[in-house]
Amino acid sequence: MFPLGCSPDDLFDSRRVDWRLLPLMSALYAVALIDRTNLSVARTAGMAVDLDLTVSNRYSTVSCLYFVPYILFQLPSNVLLKFFGVRLWLTICILGWGIVQLGMGFVKTWGQLTVCRVLLGLFEAGFFPALVFVITTWYKRHEVQKRLALFYLTSVVIGGFSGIIGYAITFLKGKGGLDSWNWIFIIQGILTIVLAILNHLFIAEFPQQNNFLTAEQTNLILTRVEQDRGDSLPDEITGAKVLHHLSDWTIWACALMFMCSTMPAYAVAYFVTIILNSMGWNVRDSLLLSTPPYAISCFTFAWLSDKTKKRAPFIAAQAVMVLVGMVLTGYAKQNGARYLGLFLSAAGSAGCVPAVLAYSSNNVVSHSKRAVSTAVIVSAGGVGGIFATTVFREQDFPRYLNGVWATIGCQLLMIALLAVTSWHFARKNRLSREGRLEAPLEGTPGFYYTM
Fold this sequence. Notes:
Number of strands: 0
Structural class: mainly alpha
Strand content: under 5%
CATH topology: Growth Hormone, Chain: A
Radius of gyration: 22 Å
Oligomer: single chain
Largest sheet: none
Number of helices: 21
Protein backbone atom coordinates (compact mmCIF):
# COMPACT_ATOMS: atom_id res chain seq x y z
CA MET A 1 0.00 0.00 0.00
CA PHE A 2 2.87 2.39 0.84
CA PRO A 3 6.36 2.61 -0.76
CA LEU A 4 8.86 0.10 0.64
CA GLY A 5 10.41 1.33 3.89
CA CYS A 6 7.90 4.17 4.30
CA SER A 7 5.30 4.46 7.02
CA PRO A 8 2.13 6.57 6.82
CA ASP A 9 3.83 9.10 9.12
CA ASP A 10 6.69 9.52 6.63
CA LEU A 11 4.26 10.33 3.83
CA PHE A 12 1.85 12.52 5.80
CA ASP A 13 2.07 16.26 5.11
CA SER A 14 -0.14 17.94 7.70
CA ARG A 15 -0.01 21.40 6.17
CA ARG A 16 -2.79 20.90 3.65
CA VAL A 17 -5.11 19.54 6.34
CA ASP A 18 -4.05 22.22 8.84
CA TRP A 19 -4.69 25.06 6.42
CA ARG A 20 -8.08 23.70 5.41
CA LEU A 21 -9.31 23.04 8.94
CA LEU A 22 -7.77 25.52 11.35
CA PRO A 23 -8.00 29.05 9.87
CA LEU A 24 -11.72 28.95 9.07
CA MET A 25 -12.64 27.08 12.25
CA SER A 26 -10.59 29.53 14.31
CA ALA A 27 -12.28 32.51 12.67
CA LEU A 28 -15.69 30.98 13.25
CA TYR A 29 -15.02 30.26 16.91
CA ALA A 30 -13.49 33.72 17.36
CA VAL A 31 -16.77 35.22 16.22
CA ALA A 32 -18.63 32.85 18.54
CA LEU A 33 -16.50 34.03 21.47
CA ILE A 34 -17.00 37.68 20.56
CA ASP A 35 -20.76 37.25 20.17
CA ARG A 36 -20.92 35.34 23.45
CA THR A 37 -18.81 37.69 25.57
CA ASN A 38 -19.37 41.12 24.05
CA LEU A 39 -21.79 42.05 26.84
CA SER A 40 -18.85 43.42 28.81
CA VAL A 41 -17.83 45.66 25.91
CA ALA A 42 -21.42 46.77 25.22
CA ARG A 43 -21.99 47.45 28.91
CA THR A 44 -18.91 49.66 29.10
CA ALA A 45 -20.07 51.43 25.90
CA GLY A 46 -23.37 52.53 27.47
CA MET A 47 -25.74 49.55 27.45
CA ALA A 48 -25.77 49.32 31.27
CA VAL A 49 -27.34 52.78 31.55
CA ASP A 50 -29.82 52.41 28.68
CA LEU A 51 -31.14 49.02 29.82
CA ASP A 52 -30.78 49.55 33.61
CA LEU A 53 -28.41 46.59 33.94
CA THR A 54 -26.86 47.94 37.14
CA VAL A 55 -30.09 47.31 39.05
CA SER A 56 -29.73 44.34 41.41
CA ASN A 57 -28.15 41.34 39.61
CA ARG A 58 -29.54 42.03 36.14
CA TYR A 59 -26.16 41.98 34.38
CA SER A 60 -25.19 38.65 35.98
CA THR A 61 -28.65 37.25 35.13
CA VAL A 62 -28.39 38.24 31.47
CA SER A 63 -24.86 36.77 31.33
CA CYS A 64 -25.85 33.58 33.13
CA LEU A 65 -29.04 32.55 31.32
CA TYR A 66 -27.16 32.14 28.05
CA PHE A 67 -25.59 29.00 29.48
CA VAL A 68 -28.82 27.12 30.29
CA PRO A 69 -29.66 26.07 26.70
CA TYR A 70 -25.92 26.03 25.90
CA ILE A 71 -25.44 23.23 28.44
CA LEU A 72 -28.66 21.29 27.78
CA PHE A 73 -28.28 21.03 23.99
CA GLN A 74 -24.61 20.01 23.70
CA LEU A 75 -25.17 16.25 23.57
CA PRO A 76 -28.27 16.36 21.32
CA SER A 77 -26.36 18.69 19.00
CA ASN A 78 -23.49 16.24 18.57
CA VAL A 79 -26.00 13.54 17.67
CA LEU A 80 -27.62 15.89 15.13
CA LEU A 81 -24.15 16.65 13.77
CA LYS A 82 -23.82 13.02 12.69
CA PHE A 83 -27.31 13.15 11.13
CA PHE A 84 -27.06 16.44 9.21
CA GLY A 85 -23.32 16.45 8.50
CA VAL A 86 -20.75 19.03 9.46
CA ARG A 87 -21.46 21.57 6.71
CA LEU A 88 -25.24 21.82 7.07
CA TRP A 89 -25.40 21.60 10.87
CA LEU A 90 -22.75 24.23 11.50
CA THR A 91 -24.34 26.55 8.93
CA ILE A 92 -27.68 26.26 10.76
CA CYS A 93 -26.00 27.05 14.08
CA ILE A 94 -23.95 30.02 12.82
CA LEU A 95 -26.75 31.60 10.80
CA GLY A 96 -29.12 31.22 13.76
CA TRP A 97 -26.92 32.99 16.27
CA GLY A 98 -25.91 35.63 13.71
CA ILE A 99 -29.55 36.62 13.30
CA VAL A 100 -30.02 36.67 17.09
CA GLN A 101 -26.87 38.79 17.53
CA LEU A 102 -28.17 41.25 14.93
CA GLY A 103 -31.48 41.42 16.78
CA MET A 104 -29.71 42.29 20.05
CA GLY A 105 -28.79 45.61 18.48
CA PHE A 106 -32.45 46.65 18.55
CA VAL A 107 -33.59 45.53 22.01
CA LYS A 108 -35.30 48.13 24.21
CA THR A 109 -35.36 46.39 27.61
CA TRP A 110 -33.13 44.12 29.63
CA GLY A 111 -35.84 41.41 29.39
CA GLN A 112 -35.64 41.43 25.59
CA LEU A 113 -31.87 41.20 25.86
CA THR A 114 -32.25 38.16 28.14
CA VAL A 115 -34.48 36.37 25.60
CA CYS A 116 -31.90 37.03 22.88
CA ARG A 117 -29.13 35.65 25.11
CA VAL A 118 -31.11 32.44 25.69
CA LEU A 119 -31.58 31.99 21.93
CA LEU A 120 -27.89 32.73 21.39
CA GLY A 121 -27.01 29.92 23.81
CA LEU A 122 -29.36 27.55 21.97
CA PHE A 123 -27.74 28.12 18.57
CA GLU A 124 -24.16 28.16 19.88
CA ALA A 125 -24.66 24.92 21.86
CA GLY A 126 -23.75 22.63 18.98
CA PHE A 127 -20.87 24.68 17.63
CA PHE A 128 -17.77 24.30 19.82
CA PRO A 129 -18.16 20.54 20.59
CA ALA A 130 -18.67 19.92 16.87
CA LEU A 131 -15.45 21.74 15.97
CA VAL A 132 -13.43 19.90 18.62
CA PHE A 133 -14.96 16.57 17.57
CA VAL A 134 -14.10 17.16 13.90
CA ILE A 135 -10.53 18.31 14.57
CA THR A 136 -9.72 15.28 16.75
CA THR A 137 -10.82 12.85 14.03
CA TRP A 138 -8.13 14.12 11.62
CA TYR A 139 -4.99 13.66 13.75
CA LYS A 140 -3.15 11.16 15.91
CA ARG A 141 -3.49 11.54 19.66
CA HIS A 142 -0.17 13.27 20.30
CA GLU A 143 -0.60 15.69 17.41
CA VAL A 144 -3.92 17.05 18.58
CA GLN A 145 -3.09 19.50 21.40
CA LYS A 146 -0.99 21.79 19.19
CA ARG A 147 -3.89 21.93 16.74
CA LEU A 148 -6.49 22.49 19.44
CA ALA A 149 -4.28 25.14 21.03
CA LEU A 150 -3.68 26.86 17.69
CA PHE A 151 -7.39 26.71 16.89
CA TYR A 152 -8.40 27.97 20.33
CA LEU A 153 -5.62 30.54 20.64
CA THR A 154 -6.21 32.04 17.23
CA SER A 155 -9.88 32.40 18.03
CA VAL A 156 -9.17 33.81 21.51
CA VAL A 157 -6.57 36.27 20.19
CA ILE A 158 -8.97 37.46 17.49
CA GLY A 159 -11.73 37.53 20.09
CA GLY A 160 -9.43 39.41 22.42
CA PHE A 161 -9.49 42.30 19.99
CA SER A 162 -13.22 42.69 20.66
CA GLY A 163 -12.29 45.48 23.08
CA ILE A 164 -10.41 47.33 20.35
CA ILE A 165 -13.19 46.64 17.85
CA GLY A 166 -15.71 47.83 20.41
CA TYR A 167 -13.77 51.04 20.92
CA ALA A 168 -13.67 51.66 17.16
CA ILE A 169 -17.42 51.08 16.93
CA THR A 170 -18.06 53.66 19.67
CA PHE A 171 -17.37 56.33 17.04
CA LEU A 172 -20.68 55.29 15.41
CA LYS A 173 -22.56 56.65 18.43
CA GLY A 174 -25.62 58.56 17.22
CA LYS A 175 -25.54 57.16 13.66
CA GLY A 176 -29.01 56.08 12.59
CA GLY A 177 -30.37 57.17 15.93
CA LEU A 178 -28.56 54.31 17.66
CA ASP A 179 -26.06 54.27 20.50
CA SER A 180 -22.58 52.76 20.09
CA TRP A 181 -23.54 49.58 21.97
CA ASN A 182 -26.36 48.95 19.46
CA TRP A 183 -23.84 49.16 16.64
CA ILE A 184 -21.56 46.65 18.40
CA PHE A 185 -24.27 43.99 18.19
CA ILE A 186 -25.45 44.96 14.69
CA ILE A 187 -22.01 44.94 13.06
CA GLN A 188 -20.93 41.72 14.76
CA GLY A 189 -24.26 40.10 13.81
CA ILE A 190 -23.76 40.98 10.14
CA LEU A 191 -20.20 39.59 10.29
CA THR A 192 -21.51 36.32 11.75
CA ILE A 193 -24.08 35.94 8.97
CA VAL A 194 -21.36 36.47 6.34
CA LEU A 195 -19.22 33.79 8.02
CA ALA A 196 -22.19 31.38 7.97
CA ILE A 197 -22.08 31.61 4.17
CA LEU A 198 -18.30 31.06 4.09
CA ASN A 199 -18.74 28.09 6.41
CA HIS A 200 -21.22 26.48 4.04
CA LEU A 201 -18.81 26.92 1.13
CA PHE A 202 -15.50 25.87 2.69
CA ILE A 203 -15.85 23.98 6.00
CA ALA A 204 -14.18 20.54 6.14
CA GLU A 205 -16.24 17.42 6.83
CA PHE A 206 -15.05 14.29 8.66
CA PRO A 207 -11.98 12.68 7.00
CA GLN A 208 -13.89 9.90 5.24
CA GLN A 209 -16.32 12.49 3.77
CA ASN A 210 -13.84 15.19 2.74
CA ASN A 211 -13.75 16.63 -0.79
CA PHE A 212 -10.37 18.39 -0.83
CA LEU A 213 -7.99 15.40 -0.65
CA THR A 214 -7.39 12.64 -3.19
CA ALA A 215 -8.47 9.08 -2.40
CA GLU A 216 -4.83 8.17 -1.67
CA GLN A 217 -4.37 11.13 0.70
CA THR A 218 -7.62 10.32 2.50
CA ASN A 219 -6.55 6.70 2.89
CA LEU A 220 -3.25 7.89 4.38
CA ILE A 221 -5.13 10.00 6.98
CA LEU A 222 -7.42 7.11 7.92
CA THR A 223 -4.52 4.63 8.12
CA ARG A 224 -2.56 6.84 10.52
CA VAL A 225 -5.56 7.28 12.82
CA GLU A 226 -6.38 3.57 12.67
CA GLN A 227 -2.83 2.61 13.63
CA ASP A 228 -2.82 5.14 16.46
CA ARG A 229 -6.14 4.39 18.16
CA GLY A 230 -8.25 2.14 15.94
CA ASP A 231 -11.22 4.44 15.27
CA SER A 232 -10.61 5.93 11.84
CA LEU A 233 -14.15 5.11 10.69
CA PRO A 234 -17.29 6.07 12.65
CA ASP A 235 -19.34 3.57 14.57
CA GLU A 236 -23.11 3.87 14.93
CA ILE A 237 -24.40 6.01 17.79
CA THR A 238 -27.17 4.21 19.72
CA GLY A 239 -28.94 4.94 22.98
CA ALA A 240 -27.28 1.95 24.62
CA LYS A 241 -23.83 3.18 23.57
CA VAL A 242 -24.54 6.68 24.85
CA LEU A 243 -25.57 5.34 28.26
CA HIS A 244 -22.52 3.05 28.36
CA HIS A 245 -20.15 5.91 27.56
CA LEU A 246 -21.84 8.13 30.16
CA SER A 247 -21.05 5.52 32.82
CA ASP A 248 -17.30 6.18 32.44
CA TRP A 249 -16.39 8.31 35.47
CA THR A 250 -13.24 9.68 33.83
CA ILE A 251 -15.40 11.59 31.33
CA TRP A 252 -17.11 13.34 34.22
CA ALA A 253 -13.77 14.03 35.91
CA CYS A 254 -12.51 15.65 32.69
CA ALA A 255 -15.79 17.59 32.49
CA LEU A 256 -15.19 19.00 35.98
CA MET A 257 -11.63 19.92 34.98
CA PHE A 258 -12.94 21.69 31.89
CA MET A 259 -15.40 23.60 34.06
CA CYS A 260 -12.48 24.66 36.25
CA SER A 261 -10.56 25.89 33.20
CA THR A 262 -13.42 27.81 31.57
CA MET A 263 -14.62 29.46 34.79
CA PRO A 264 -11.70 31.96 34.96
CA ALA A 265 -11.73 32.34 31.17
CA TYR A 266 -15.36 33.47 31.25
CA ALA A 267 -14.75 35.62 34.32
CA VAL A 268 -12.00 37.51 32.52
CA ALA A 269 -14.08 37.77 29.34
CA TYR A 270 -17.17 39.15 31.07
CA PHE A 271 -15.55 41.32 33.73
CA VAL A 272 -12.08 42.38 32.52
CA THR A 273 -13.19 45.74 31.11
CA ILE A 274 -15.26 46.40 34.24
CA ILE A 275 -12.30 45.57 36.52
CA LEU A 276 -9.94 47.70 34.45
CA ASN A 277 -12.42 50.56 34.53
CA SER A 278 -12.52 50.24 38.33
CA MET A 279 -8.72 50.67 38.42
CA GLY A 280 -9.15 54.19 37.12
CA TRP A 281 -8.73 53.70 33.39
CA ASN A 282 -11.29 55.43 31.20
CA VAL A 283 -13.62 53.66 28.77
CA ARG A 284 -11.11 53.80 25.89
CA ASP A 285 -8.20 52.41 27.93
CA SER A 286 -10.40 49.75 29.57
CA LEU A 287 -11.42 48.45 26.15
CA LEU A 288 -7.90 48.56 24.72
CA LEU A 289 -6.22 46.96 27.76
CA SER A 290 -8.63 44.01 27.64
CA THR A 291 -6.50 42.43 24.88
CA PRO A 292 -3.65 40.74 26.80
CA PRO A 293 -0.79 39.11 24.82
CA TYR A 294 -0.92 35.59 26.29
CA ALA A 295 -0.79 33.49 23.11
CA ILE A 296 2.92 32.61 23.39
CA SER A 297 2.47 31.05 26.84
CA CYS A 298 -0.46 28.89 25.75
CA PHE A 299 1.13 27.57 22.56
CA THR A 300 4.46 26.89 24.30
CA PHE A 301 2.72 24.66 26.82
CA ALA A 302 0.82 22.91 24.01
CA TRP A 303 4.00 22.30 22.00
CA LEU A 304 5.80 20.88 25.06
CA SER A 305 2.81 18.71 25.90
CA ASP A 306 2.66 17.15 22.41
CA LYS A 307 6.45 16.73 22.26
CA THR A 308 6.69 14.99 25.65
CA LYS A 309 3.34 13.17 25.19
CA LYS A 310 2.35 14.36 28.66
CA ARG A 311 -0.78 16.31 29.54
CA ALA A 312 -1.37 16.48 33.30
CA PRO A 313 1.88 18.22 34.41
CA PHE A 314 1.35 21.09 31.99
CA ILE A 315 -2.31 21.48 32.95
CA ALA A 316 -1.26 21.67 36.61
CA ALA A 317 1.40 24.30 35.84
CA GLN A 318 -1.14 26.52 34.10
CA ALA A 319 -3.64 26.06 36.93
CA VAL A 320 -0.96 27.41 39.28
CA MET A 321 -0.60 30.44 36.96
CA VAL A 322 -4.32 31.15 37.43
CA LEU A 323 -3.94 30.77 41.20
CA VAL A 324 -1.14 33.35 41.33
CA GLY A 325 -2.99 35.65 38.93
CA MET A 326 -6.18 35.62 40.99
CA VAL A 327 -4.31 36.46 44.19
CA LEU A 328 -2.63 39.43 42.49
CA THR A 329 -5.88 40.68 40.97
CA GLY A 330 -7.75 40.43 44.25
CA TYR A 331 -5.16 41.67 46.72
CA ALA A 332 -2.41 43.67 45.01
CA LYS A 333 -2.49 47.40 45.75
CA GLN A 334 -0.92 48.72 42.56
CA ASN A 335 -2.86 48.69 39.29
CA GLY A 336 0.14 47.32 37.38
CA ALA A 337 0.28 44.26 39.63
CA ARG A 338 -3.49 43.73 39.35
CA TYR A 339 -3.23 43.90 35.54
CA LEU A 340 -0.38 41.35 35.68
CA GLY A 341 -2.74 39.15 37.69
CA LEU A 342 -5.38 39.41 34.97
CA PHE A 343 -2.74 38.55 32.37
CA LEU A 344 -1.60 35.42 34.29
CA SER A 345 -5.19 34.32 34.90
CA ALA A 346 -6.09 34.74 31.24
CA ALA A 347 -2.92 32.98 30.04
CA GLY A 348 -3.32 30.04 32.42
CA SER A 349 -7.01 29.50 31.77
CA ALA A 350 -6.62 29.90 27.99
CA GLY A 351 -3.90 27.24 28.02
CA CYS A 352 -5.92 24.84 30.16
CA VAL A 353 -8.91 24.84 27.79
CA PRO A 354 -7.19 23.06 24.83
CA ALA A 355 -5.04 21.04 27.26
CA VAL A 356 -8.02 19.48 29.04
CA LEU A 357 -9.72 18.81 25.69
CA ALA A 358 -6.56 17.05 24.46
CA TYR A 359 -6.23 15.11 27.74
CA SER A 360 -9.78 13.81 27.42
CA SER A 361 -9.73 13.12 23.66
CA ASN A 362 -6.43 11.20 23.97
CA ASN A 363 -8.07 8.76 26.37
CA VAL A 364 -11.19 7.74 24.45
CA VAL A 365 -11.65 5.51 21.42
CA SER A 366 -14.53 5.36 18.87
CA HIS A 367 -16.49 8.14 17.25
CA SER A 368 -19.53 7.51 19.44
CA LYS A 369 -17.58 7.87 22.69
CA ARG A 370 -15.74 10.89 21.29
CA ALA A 371 -19.08 12.54 20.42
CA VAL A 372 -20.48 11.83 23.90
CA SER A 373 -17.35 12.84 25.83
CA THR A 374 -16.86 16.04 23.82
CA ALA A 375 -20.46 17.09 24.38
CA VAL A 376 -20.38 16.33 28.12
CA ILE A 377 -17.05 18.09 28.63
CA VAL A 378 -17.93 21.21 26.65
CA SER A 379 -21.30 21.32 28.46
CA ALA A 380 -19.38 21.50 31.71
CA GLY A 381 -17.56 24.48 30.24
CA GLY A 382 -20.96 26.17 30.13
CA VAL A 383 -21.39 25.39 33.82
CA GLY A 384 -18.10 27.23 34.31
CA GLY A 385 -19.67 30.20 32.57
CA ILE A 386 -22.70 30.12 34.90
CA PHE A 387 -20.38 29.82 37.88
CA ALA A 388 -18.30 32.80 36.75
CA THR A 389 -21.30 35.05 36.17
CA THR A 390 -22.82 34.23 39.57
CA VAL A 391 -19.75 34.43 41.85
CA PHE A 392 -18.47 37.66 40.28
CA ARG A 393 -21.37 39.60 41.77
CA GLU A 394 -22.35 43.24 41.26
CA GLN A 395 -22.16 43.90 45.01
CA ASP A 396 -18.52 42.73 45.08
CA PHE A 397 -17.37 45.44 42.65
CA PRO A 398 -14.56 46.50 42.19
CA ARG A 399 -12.30 43.69 43.53
CA TYR A 400 -14.73 40.76 43.27
CA LEU A 401 -13.07 38.85 46.12
CA ASN A 402 -15.91 36.31 46.23
CA GLY A 403 -15.19 35.44 42.60
CA VAL A 404 -11.44 35.44 43.18
CA TRP A 405 -11.69 32.79 45.89
CA ALA A 406 -14.17 30.72 43.87
CA THR A 407 -11.69 30.72 40.98
CA ILE A 408 -8.87 29.65 43.30
CA GLY A 409 -11.04 26.79 44.57
CA CYS A 410 -11.65 25.65 40.98
CA GLN A 411 -7.92 25.47 40.29
CA LEU A 412 -7.30 23.42 43.44
CA LEU A 413 -10.09 21.04 42.38
CA MET A 414 -8.56 20.69 38.91
CA ILE A 415 -5.16 19.78 40.34
CA ALA A 416 -6.79 17.18 42.61
CA LEU A 417 -8.74 15.65 39.71
CA LEU A 418 -5.57 15.54 37.60
CA ALA A 419 -3.85 13.57 40.35
CA VAL A 420 -6.73 11.07 40.64
CA THR A 421 -7.21 10.50 36.89
CA SER A 422 -3.45 10.25 36.26
CA TRP A 423 -3.13 7.62 39.00
CA HIS A 424 -6.08 5.70 37.50
CA PHE A 425 -4.69 5.81 33.94
CA ALA A 426 -1.19 4.84 35.09
CA ARG A 427 -2.60 1.87 37.05
CA LYS A 428 -4.67 0.70 34.07
CA ASN A 429 -1.65 0.98 31.75
CA ARG A 430 0.47 -1.06 34.18
CA LEU A 431 -2.16 -3.80 34.54
CA SER A 432 -2.59 -3.96 30.77
CA ARG A 433 1.16 -4.30 30.15
CA GLU A 434 1.31 -7.06 32.78
CA GLY A 435 -1.55 -8.90 31.04
CA ARG A 436 -3.77 -8.72 34.13
CA LEU A 437 -6.83 -7.24 32.40
CA GLU A 438 -9.53 -9.35 30.75
CA ALA A 439 -9.70 -7.06 27.69
CA PRO A 440 -7.44 -4.43 26.09
CA LEU A 441 -7.89 -0.84 27.20
CA GLU A 442 -10.86 0.85 25.51
CA GLY A 443 -11.34 -2.42 23.60
CA THR A 444 -8.36 -1.57 21.38
CA PRO A 445 -5.23 -3.79 21.39
CA GLY A 446 -2.04 -1.79 21.88
CA PHE A 447 -3.84 1.27 23.25
CA TYR A 448 -2.53 2.98 26.40
CA TYR A 449 -3.82 6.01 28.24
CA THR A 450 -2.05 9.36 28.18
CA MET A 451 -1.26 11.11 31.48
